[in-house]
Structure formats: structure tokens, C-alpha cells
């Protein structure tokens, strides 16, 4: 007893020594690290956030006495050509009447856009402080970077002003099914579908547009009527923001009556279904923040901001989904509370038990919000995508496996890694170079000592159709004689500080300047830098990684740029911050499309920072995660959320960026990473090497099996990307998205479907876990992907075995899954390989699916050079039909693909009577007559489904055919 007591007493000291030792021996890898909270603002440290939260608190405290000071002047309302216009009057405490022009656009897509601006600022009738010459208007150019279409108004919107009742009603949308009810005073907007209110704006009266006012010096000894402490200047972490326009935030409450779940507003390391933010058990204390930042060692289950922003939120309840998009590029916060639903006459027929109330506030800019009435997640993805663009159809290689680390240190190193992948027969498509390849962190150069022969290196990669991605960051080393910086200065293309001089900050190269990709001249210069002539040592198989584009500034406030910095057009950085990263990607994208005149190629760009619209130009990843199980687990909700928010080409660093994963974690990470639309392993410079072939057996085999599964399913992945590029539908889809009627799945974010294939995955993301519980919503049979074990669906949970070597993956009955089964070194080498089609029959013996194929690199698909087929299995007949449309390049492409055939068809859940059959009849369009192929039936035993294999039916993947079983 005495001995054990003394051990316990000594334990704390022992642990402290151990911790210190661990830190000395290994700064990364042994213990979870955590963010430095003091470097990032909490709401209470951000003036406008604090003010708007206080405003909301006051409203709640005042209850029914709360007087929201905004009303729509009834006499000002007009409706013309699909635009409703009017003047909203804000009455201030001092009796001032501030005029705010309101425009509501009813769009053909059924979406509605509500814009509120400030008349005085629109007219330029304000004074700026500190002699600043920045713009006087509220920022109104976010749409220029973000929106690409669907702004055509629906001219038939019908209008019934009822001035005497104080309401205006507008019927709009498809067949006038939607109605907007505007209450004039206080202003409130109710969006109704089929007679029910689904979205309410300013229902809680939290609309707050901080109008311009001059700074009046309060005589000494007196106090200002309002708390002005955060109006005119703000300091944080030793930096002072000069705020030349004073307070100018915009805020609004948005309520989803009867909706318990909301999703979206990336980027946060949090659950898919967003949590409440006003405290209480299991809830957050802070609002979700969106202010693109380089957050070192970010924490999980947090509302802290990360690298990118998409201010788009989807709300879901049983059988109904709606959404809003808050088009604002300034720092933004969103509070979420959920309350018990109350029935009110305007929201008849509520089905959800709870109502979600959200409160949005941005530091500057006009109020610009889109409302989408669904009615389901698919229509929302489509309508939102029409506005901001769909995901780019990537090159084929871009959806295969990427091998990265900071850094592959020489060209010889790259070549050796390349050879080793082959030696160990592990496929990969792309190898990456982080910042060390450059000559002293000067982008667009190569270190002459370590990368003396980029050409030879890339020639070797090219032999197996592999690609190289090199990093190019937007901070440019301020060093005399570096031609890029000299041009940046002489052409006046850099971001300026508040005094109008080139802004100088600290990043990887030390003292740096930042290219201002808001400027058309900067865009055309930056574009030009990627031409093969300029960026020597790059070739058609070199692609680009834009990192640190939040922008990350090591010595800047909150590791970014001062808000009073100035961009092209005299806009403050404050106004455009969240778009900055996207402008860099935009300029890079334009550069990569045509690096040599006449040679068009689909670009591939990875970006860390993003905004709504970036999905049109590349992929994103979730930044600097850690080699911890918790980081593996959160990666899937984060990736799923990206898909909901219209940017599905997303992934996380496989293996974890900081730290050294143990082998189990690394294996499980690969088994999860194969489900990220963007699948890349990456690691910090201080970590140990962990290429899959270094892991030893059995880990190497298990990892390579996982990567091979990704390669086998590439035809299905490419088809899913194609679908996303046309409809905005996520590539990996959360449970609620597929089963919008089943409440059990609304908060699920650890199991998901891959494209429209019916493949349902639930990776293991916890240590020592040897099985997973999978929930099957619909009344279908599901089958284990590998051994066809049957799992009956219908609101049921199943425990699926998942020892380390097993990837939990089920196939939902009713689908056709296209695959390529021949193992190759890279996806490029699979181009002419034959296909396998897996037909997974449903309860009625039917299945369907699609495939999309093109050359995987050029834009010829826009001229019809592609194959798009519909597969249908019904009444024991399997057919392939063309669902593409013809273009000038269709015939040529089909001809080039005529030798690409189907080599195998597997029918899972095959009927017992097939046991007697040995052949199937094959009829291909254009063939001389029917042929036969062999059918091999295997009986279903011990819980496994029967299946049948047709060997070599030899039908063309691009042809119409029919196979009779
Ligand atoms: C930060 C990125 O997040 C990381 O992936 C990269 O390795 C480093 N920058 C160095 O470029």
C-alpha cells in the first residue's frame, strides 16, 4: 500500500519529465497538438461580431417589446420584369431615417435573391477617415467572381400589393408554386412552397445594416450615446485596423421553420449536421466563423474558421430541403439555435419537431442573400450549381492516387520513388513537389543543385503516363534580381498597404509581396507565367498546387493580411478577403488551359483557400491535419460537407500532415482516403517517410489493395465526376441525401454512397476497431462488395466485419457498377483496358446504371468526343443504350474506342434458375448476328448471394447491345 501511494505521488513529476523529453525528442508525432487560440479572434474580440450578438441578445431580452427598426416604404414598391424594388427605411435612435434600396430578384430557376444596399454610400455621399481614397460603396463585386449564370429573372412573377394590410405577396417559381410574403413593418420576408413557409428572413428582427455615420468626437468628460469602442479602430495581437469607413456590418436572421438539421457553411472541422452555437450541453459557445485563415494545428469539433469559405447552408427535414446562400466575401459569422417548432398560420403542416434559427453577420459589403426552396437535396445542388458553377470535369489522372510529401528532395529522389512504386506494384498517378524544389522559395524557378534536370525527371514519369504537380504560392520573394518580383513591382500588380505602398509581409521566403489577382492586368501577367516558355522545366504533364492563398502572412493579424490593405479597384482587403484565394486559382486556371498556343488542356489545380465558385477550377483539401485517429474520423464529415456546399472535389491529407501515424492508422487512412474524391497522401517536412512500400508486410499489401480498389472503380468515379459537372450532385453522398425521408440518417456522417453506384462505404476510423455498424435505410438487399454476403435493409443496422485487411463496403441492390479489373501502374495505362460490369439485382430482379468515358484530358468532350451509356437490366435482359448527344467529334472518338470491350459481367443476386444455363445470347448493334458467351453460375450459400459470371461477352463499351440471360 505504502509503495503504491509513493508511486502515485511521484507519477506527476515522472509524467512531466516524460512530456518534456517527448517534446525534445520529437516536436511532432507523439502528442496531439493544438491551435493557439490567442492568435485567432473569438466573437467577443471581433467588433462587429460582438455588436451583432449583443443586438440579438437585446432582442431576445426585450421579447415582444423588441422593435425592429426596418420597414419597407409601401409607396415605393414596384415589380417589373421579375425584380421587386423598394426602399427600406431604417429608423435610428436619434431620429435619422436611413434609406436602403431593396431589390428582390425572382429567378427562372426558382431561386430568389434579396439585395439591400445603402443609398448614401451608393451615391458616394460619405466621408472616409484618415484621408483614405478607398471605395465608398458597400462591396458589390462578389458576384463577379462567384456567379456564372442563372440570373435570368422570371418575368411572370405575379404581384399583389396590399398596402392597406401592410403585406406584399408575389407568386413565382415553377408554375407559380412559390410565394414570397413581405410584411412591410417591421420588415419580414416569408418564403413559401405549396402554401407552407420554409424560410423566414428577419423573422426575429435581427436585420442590422450598420449605416455610415461620421465620427463625432465626444467632448472630454462626456460619454457617447452608444458604445463606440469597436467602431473606429480595432486592435488585435499588436495590429491595429484603421477602419476608414467606421462600422459597416450587415446582419440578418434566417429561420427554417420545422427544420432540425442544417449543413454546409464550410470550412470547419465539425460534424456534418451543424450544432447550436449559443452554449448548452453538446453545443458550441462560439458562432461558426468564416474568415479564410491558415490555422496552425487546427482543433476538431470546433466553429473556428479554416482555410476556405462557402457561405451556403442547406436545411433538411423529412422529405424537404431548402437552402440559402449569403453572398458576402468579408469576415462572416453564423450563430445557430434550435427551438421547439411552434405552429403558426403561415407555416401550416410543419413536420419537423424543431426549428433552426440562424443569425448571419458580415463585417462589410452589401446584404445579398439567395433563397432556394428545394424541394430536395438534388434540386438544391442543381440550382445552386447553376448560379456558382459546377465542379470542373477533371483530367482522369486527377481522380487517381497522388503521392506527396514536403518534400521529395531531388529529382533523383522523385525518380527513385517512382521506381519503387513500380517495384512493389503499387499504382499511383501523380508525384508532388512542395516548396523546397524552388531556388530559395522563388516560385517559377527550380533549385539548380537539387532539381538540375526537371526534364529528365518528367520524362521518366511520362513513360508510365504519370504527372508532376509543383507548388506555386502567391507570396513572392522580395529579392532584387528575381525577375518575377521585378515585374510585379514595375507593372504595379501587388496588393498595397493602407498608405498605397506595396504591402510587405513575411512568408516562406521571408520578406514577400503578394500578387493582386483581382486586377485584370495581374491576371494576364500571372497567366503568362505558366507558359512553357516562361516556366522552364514544365511540360504538359506538370500541374499546379496553389497553397497559402488565404493569404497566409506569418506576421500579419490572425496570420493573414491587414484588413485595411488595398486591392485593385480601391477595395479594402476587408471587403474581399474570402475571395482572395479563389482569384489566385482563377488566374492559375486561365494560365494552365493554354500553356502553348493552340494546345488546350484541362487544368488541374489544388487550392487550400476557396470560396463559392472555386469548384469550377480545381480541387481542395482540408489543410494541415494531424496523424491522429480523431483527424481521420473528422475527414469524412468535412469532405461530405464540401459536397453539400457544391465543391465535391475534396480530400484530406492521407496519413495526417503533422506527426507520424502508426501502421494501423496509416492503413485505415488509406482505406478511408480511397473514398475522398481527391485522394492524396501528404506529410510535413519533419515526419518520417511513409510511402506505402515502406510499411512492410502485411501493411503494404493491405494499402496496395486499397489503392487498387480505387483504381478498379475509376470508371465509376469518373462517371460520378461527370454527373457532378452537370448537376452539382455530390460525388460522395451522405445518408440524408440518398434517403431524404429517413430521419435516422439525417445526422449520419460516417457512412456514405459513392456517386450513383449504390456503393455504400463506412470506413473504420477508430483504433483497434474490427467491425462497423452500418445502417441500411431502404427496404433493399445490400451485398458485401467482396464476398456477396447479404444484408437486408429496411431501417436496419448490421454489424459488418472489418479486420484490418477488410474495407467495409456494400452494394445496394438495383445498380450497375462499371469497373476496370486489370492492375496497372497508373490510370493512364488503363485507358484501353476492357471493362467489367457488376450488375447488382434489386428485389424485382432489375438494375440500372450509367457510364461516362472520354479521353480524360482534353476538351474534346465538349465536341461530342465521349461515351455516355445507360445500362438497364430487366426481365433477364441486359441492355446498353446511348444517352449522349452527338457532336462533330463523336464518330472519330467512338472509332478510336471501338476495341475497348466489356470483358466480364458479374450478376449479383442471380436467380436460382440460371443454374441450368451455360450461355447467354449477345446481340450487338451492327454485328452480323447473335453470338453466345459462357455463363457460370455460383449458388448462394451461408448467407451469401448467388452470382453469375458472363465471360468475355465482347461487346463494345461505346456500342448499343443487348444480352439475354
Ligand atoms: C502549408 C500546406 O498546408 C502544406 O500542405 C504544405 O506542405 C506547406 N504549406 C509547405 O508548402
From TrEMBL:
- Descriptive protein name: alpha-glucosidase
Give the family this protein belongs to, as stated in its UniProt record. Answer: Belongs to the glycosyl hydrolase 31 family.
Classification via InterPro entries: Gal_mutarotase_sf_dom (IPR011013), GH (IPR017853), Glyco_hydro_31_AS (IPR030458), Glyco_hydro_31_C (IPR048395), Glyco_hydro_31_N_dom (IPR025887), Glyco_hydro_31_TIM (IPR000322), Glyco_hydro_b (IPR013780)
Catalysed reaction(s) here are: Hydrolysis of terminal, non-reducing (1->4)-linked alpha-D-glucose residues with release of alpha-D-glucose
One GO cellular component this record assigns the protein to is:
endoplasmic reticulum lumen
Q: In its UniProt record, which GO terms are filed under biological process?
A: fungal-type cell wall beta-glucan biosynthetic process; N-glycan processing
Stretches that traverse the bilayer: 12-33
GO MF, any single term: glucan 1,3-alpha-glucosidase activity
Amino acid at each position: 500500500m505504502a509503495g503504491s501511494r509513493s508511486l502515485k505521488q511521484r507519477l506527476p513529476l515522472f509524467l512531466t519529465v516524460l512530456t518534456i523529453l517527448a517534446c525534445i525528442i520529437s516536436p511532432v508525432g507523439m502528442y496531439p497538438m493544438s491551435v493557439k487560440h490567442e492568435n485567432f479572434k473569438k466573437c467577443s474580440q471581433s467588433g462587429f461580431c460582438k455588436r451583432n450578438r449583443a443586438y440579438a441578445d437585446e432582442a431576445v431580452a426585450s421579447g415582444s417589446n423588441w422593435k425592429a427598426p426596418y420597414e419597407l416604404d409601401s409607396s415605393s414598391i414596384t415589380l417589373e420584369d421579375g425584380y421587386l424594388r423598394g426602399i427600406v427605411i431604417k429608423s435610428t435612435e436619434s431620429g435619422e431615417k436611413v434609406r436602403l434600396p431593396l431589390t428582390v430578384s425572382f429567378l427562372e430557376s426558382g431561386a430568389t435573391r434579396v439585395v439591400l444596399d445603402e443609398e448614401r454610400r451608393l451615391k458616394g455621399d460619405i466621408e472616409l477617415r484618415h484621408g483614405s481614397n478607398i471605395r465608398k460603396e458597400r462591396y458589390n463585386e462578389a458576384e463577379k467572381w462567384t456567379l456564372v449564370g442563372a440570373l435570368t429573372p422570371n418575368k411572370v412573377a405575379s404581384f399583389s400589393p396590399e398596402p392597406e394590410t401592410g403585406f406584399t405577396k408575389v407568386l413565382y417559381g415553377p408554375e407559380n408554386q412559390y410565394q414570397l410574403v413581405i410584411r412591410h413593418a417591421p420588415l419580414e420576408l416569408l418564403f413559401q412552397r405549396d402554401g407552407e413557409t420554409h424560410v423566414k428572413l428577419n423573422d426575429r428582427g435581427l436585420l442590422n445594416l450598420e449605416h455610415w455615420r461620421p465620427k463625432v468626437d465626444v467632448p472630454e468628460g462626456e460619454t457617447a450615446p452608444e458604445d463606440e469602442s469597436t467602431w473606429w479602430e480595432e486592435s488585435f495581437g499588436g495590429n491595429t485596423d484603421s477602419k476608414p469607413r467606421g462600422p459597416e456590418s450587415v446582419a440578418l436572421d434566417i429561420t427554417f421553420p420545422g427544420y432540425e438539421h442544417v449543413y454546409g457553411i464550410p470550412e470547419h472541422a465539425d460534424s456534418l449536421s451543424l450544432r447550436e452555437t449559443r452554449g448548452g450541453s453538446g453545443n458550441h459557445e462560439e458562432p461558426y466563423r468564416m474568415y479564410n485563415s491558415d490555422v496552425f494545428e487546427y482543433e476538431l469539433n470546433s466553429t473556428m474558421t479554416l482555410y476556405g469559405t462557402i457561405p451556403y447552408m442547406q436545411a433538411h427535414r423529412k422529405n424537404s430541403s431548402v437552402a440559402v446562400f449569403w453572398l458576402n466575401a468579408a469576415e462572416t459569422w453564423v450563430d445557430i439555435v434550435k427551438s421547439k417548432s411552434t405552429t403558426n398560420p403561415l407555416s401550416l403542416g410543419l413536420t419537423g419537431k424543431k426549428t433552426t434559427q440562424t443569425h448571419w453577420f458580415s463585417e462589410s459589403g452589401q446584404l445579398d442573400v439567395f433563397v432556394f426552396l428545394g424541394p430536395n437535396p438534388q434540386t438544391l445542388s442543381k440550382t445552386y450549381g447553376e448560379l456558382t458553377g459546377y465542379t470542373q470535369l477533371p483530367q482522369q489522372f486527377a481522380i487517381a492516387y497522388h503521392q506527396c510529401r514536403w518534400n521529395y528532395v531531388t529529382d533523383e529522389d522523385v525518380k527513385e520513388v517512382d521506381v519503387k512504386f513500380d517495384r512493389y506494384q503499387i499504382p499511383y498517378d501523380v508525384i508532388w513537389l512542395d516548396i523546397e524544389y524552388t531556388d530559395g522559395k522563388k516560385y517559377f524557378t527550380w533549385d539548380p543543385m537539387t532539381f538540375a534536370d526537371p526534364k529528365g525527371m518528367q520524362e521518366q514519369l511520362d513513360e508510365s503516363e504519370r504527372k508532376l504537380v509543383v507548388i506555386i504560392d502567391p507570396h513572392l520573394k522580395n529579392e532584387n534580381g528575381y525577375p518575377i518580383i521585378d515585374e510585379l513591382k514595375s507593372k504595379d500588380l501587388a496588393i498595397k498597404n493602407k498608405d498605397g505602398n506595396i504591402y510587405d509581409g513575411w512568408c516562406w521566403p521571408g520578406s514577400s509581396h503578394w500578387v493582386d489577382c483581382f486586377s485584370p492586368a495581374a491576371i494576364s501577367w500571372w497567366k503568362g507565367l505558366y507558359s512553357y516558355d516562361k516556366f522552364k522545366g514544365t511540360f504538359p504533364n506538370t500541374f499546379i498546387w496553389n497553397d497559402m492563398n488565404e493569404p497566409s502572412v506569418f506576421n500579419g493579424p490572425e496570420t493573414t493580411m491587414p484588413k485595411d490593405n488595398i486591392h485593385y479597384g480601391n477595395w479594402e482587403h476587408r471587403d474581399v478577403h474570402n475571395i482572395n484565394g479563389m482569384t489566385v486559382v482563377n488566374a492559375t486556371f486561365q494560365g494552365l488551359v493554354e500553356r502553348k498556343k493552340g494546345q488546350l488542356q484541362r487544368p488541374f489545380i489544388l487550392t487550400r483557400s476557396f470560396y463559392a465558385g472555386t469548384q469550377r477550377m480545381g480541387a481542395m483539401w482540408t489543410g494541415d491535419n494531424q496523424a491522429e485517429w480523431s483527424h481521420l474520423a473528422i475527414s469524412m464529415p468535412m469532405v461530405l460537407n464540401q459536397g453539400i456546399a457544391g465543391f465535391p472535389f475534396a480530400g484530406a491529407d492521407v496519413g495526417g500532415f503533422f506527426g507520424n501515424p502508426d501502421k494501423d492508422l496509416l492503413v485505415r487512412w488509406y482505406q478511408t482516403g480511397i473514398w475522398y474524391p481527391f485522394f492524396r497522401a501528404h506529410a510535413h517536412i519533419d515526419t518520417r517517410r511513409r510511402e506505402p512500400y515502406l510499411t512492410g508486410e502485411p501493411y503494404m499489401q493491405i494499402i496496395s489493395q486499397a489503392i487498387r480498389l480505387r483504381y478498379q472503380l475509376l470508371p465509376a468515379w469518373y462517371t460520378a465526376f461527370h454527373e457532378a459537372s452537370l448537376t452539382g450532385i455530390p460525388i460522395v453522398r451522405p445518408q440524408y441525401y440518398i434517403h431524404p425521408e429517413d430521419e435516422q440518417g439525417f445526422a449520419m456522417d460516417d457512412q456514405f454512397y459513392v456517386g450513383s453506384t449504390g456503393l455504400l462505404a463506412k470506413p473504420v476510423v477508430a483504433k483497434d476497431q474490427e467491425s462497423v455498424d452500418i445502417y441500411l435505410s431502404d427496404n433493399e438487399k445490400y451485398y458485401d462488395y467482396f464476398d456477396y454476403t447479404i444484408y437486408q435493409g429496411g431501417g436496419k443496422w448490421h454489424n459488418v466485419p472489418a479486420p484490418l485487411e477488410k474495407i467495409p463496403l456494400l452494394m445496394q441492390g438495383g445498380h450497375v457498377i462499371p469497373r476496370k479489373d486489370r492492375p496497372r501502374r497508373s490510370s493512364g495505362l488503363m485507358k484501353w483496358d476492357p471493362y467489367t460490369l457488376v450488375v447488382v439485382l434489386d428485389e424485382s430482379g432489375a438494375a440500372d446504371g450509367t457510364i461516362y468515358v472520354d479521353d480524360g484530358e482534353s476538351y474534346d468532350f465538349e465536341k461530342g468526343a465521349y461515351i455516355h451509356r445507360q445500362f438497364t437490366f430487366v426481365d433477364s435482359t441486359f441492355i446498353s443504350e446511348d444517352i449522349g448527344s452527338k457532336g462533330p467529334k463523336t464518330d472519330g472518338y467512338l472509332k478510336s474506342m471501338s476495341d475497348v470491350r466489356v470483358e466480364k459481367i458479374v450478376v449479383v443476386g442471380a436467380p436460382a434458375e440460371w443454374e441450368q444455363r451455360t450461355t447467354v445470347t449477345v446481340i450487338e448493334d451492327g454485328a452480323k448476328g447473335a453470338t453466345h458467351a459462357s455463363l457460370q453460375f455460383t449458388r448462394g450459400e451461408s448467407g451469401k448471394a448467388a452470382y453469375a459470371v458472363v465471360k468475355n461477352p465482347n461487346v463494345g463499351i461505346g456500342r448499343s447491345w443487348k444480352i439475354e440471360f
